[in-house]
Specification:
Function: Catalyzes the ATP-dependent conversion of 7-carboxy-7-deazaguanine (CDG) to 7-cyano-7-deazaguanine (preQ(0)).
Protein name: 7-cyano-7-deazaguanine synthase
Radius of gyration: 17 Å
Pathway: Purine metabolism; 7-cyano-7-deazaguanine biosynthesis
Strand order of the largest sheet: 3-2-1-4-5
Helix content: 25-40%
Organism: Teredinibacter turnerae (strain ATCC 39867 / T7901)
Keywords: ATP-binding, Ligase, Metal-binding, Nucleotide-binding, Queuosine biosynthesis, Zinc
CATH superfamily: HUPs
Strand content: 5-15%
CATH topology: Rossmann fold
CATH architecture: 3-Layer(aba) Sandwich
Largest sheet: 5 strands, parallel
Length: 224
C-alpha cells in the first residue's frame, strides 16, 4: 500500500521544497492551499503551478475568509506590510493561521487515509511567528493524536516539519538538489497580480539572502 501525505502548499519557496521532500520520501502527495483573504492571489496561482509540476495526486483549495477577523497586514489592507528589518512578532503574522490550516489538513488526511501532513514551518528564518516553533508542532501533534479517529485507533497522522531547523540557504540547497523550479514560486507578501515580488518586504529579504548564501541563482521576478 502506498504512503500518502497531505502537503500544505502556499505557493512559496518553503512549501515547494517540502513537497519535493515528501515526494522524495515516497509519499503520494495531496496538496492543500487556502484562499483565506490574503493580499494577492498570485500565491494561489503559484501553488497550483507547483502542485501540477510536481505531480500531486490531487490539489485542493479551501476558502476561508480570515478578513472577517483581520488582525494582520496580510488580511487587513489598513495595516501596511513592513519593508526591511523587523523585530518581535511582525504585523504579517496571521492570528492562529497554522492552527486553522493544520486542522483542515488533519481532517483531509483522515479522509484520504494519509499517514502524514507536511508543513514548511521554520524556526530559524521564521520571522518571529509563534506557530512555526518546534514547541508548537509538538503540542499540535499531541492534540491531533487525541482528537482524531485515526489517532484513537493507533493510526495517528504524523506532523512532518523537515525544514524546521534549516536556514533559508539550507532549504534552497535541499530544494535545488531535488530539482525544485523556484521560478514557479511566489514568496512576497505584496506581490503584484503577475506574481512579481516587491523586493522590500521581510519575506523578499529572507528569500534574496537565502539564494545568495546558498550560491544558487535567484530566479525571482521583481517588479520595477
Amino acid at each position: 500500500m502506498s504512503k500518502k501525505a497531505v502537503v500544505l502548499v502556499s505557493g512559496g519557496l518553503d512549501s515547494a521544497t517540502v513537497l519535493a521532500m515528501a515526494k522524495d520520501q515516497g509519499y503520494e502527495c495531496f496538496t492543500l492551499s487556502f484562499d483565506y483573504g490574503q493580499r494577492h492571489r498570485a500565491e494561489l496561482q503559484a501553488a497550483e503551478r507547483v502542485a501540477q509540476a510536481m505531480g500531486a495526486a490531487q490539489h485542493k483549495v479551501v476558502s476561508l475568509d480570515l478578513r472577517t477577523i483581520g488582525g494582520s497586514a496580510l488580511t487587513d489592507d489598513s495595516i501596511s506590510v513592513p519593508e526591511g528589518e523587523t523585530s518581535g512578532i511582525p504585523v504579517t503574522y496571521v492570528p492562529a493561521r497554522n492552527t486553522v490550516f493544520l486542522s483542515i489538513a488533519l481532517g483531509w488526511a483522515e479522509v484520504v487515509g494519509a499517514q502524514a501532513i507536511f508543513i514548511g514551518v521554520n524556526a530559524v528564518d521564521y520571522s518571529g511567528y509563534p506557530d512555526c516553533r518546534p514547541e508548537y508542532i509538538k503540542a499540535y501533534q499531541a492534540m491531533a493524536d487525541l482528537a482524531t479517529k485515526a489517532g484513537v485507533e493507533g493510526r495517528g497522522v504524523a506532523i512532518k516539519t523537515p525544514l524546521i531547523e534549516l536556514s533559508k540557504a539550507d532549504i534552497i540547497c535541499h530544494g535545488h538538489a531535488l530539482h525544485v523550479d523556484y521560478a514557479l514560486t511566489v514568496s512576497c507578501y505584496q506581490a503584484d497580480d503577475d506574481g512579481r515580488a516587491c523586493g522590500k518586504c521581510d519575506s523578499c529579504r529572507l528569500r534574496r539572502r537565502g539564494f545568495l548564501d546558498a550560491g544558487v541563482e535567484d530566479s525571482t521576478r521583481y517588479a520595477g
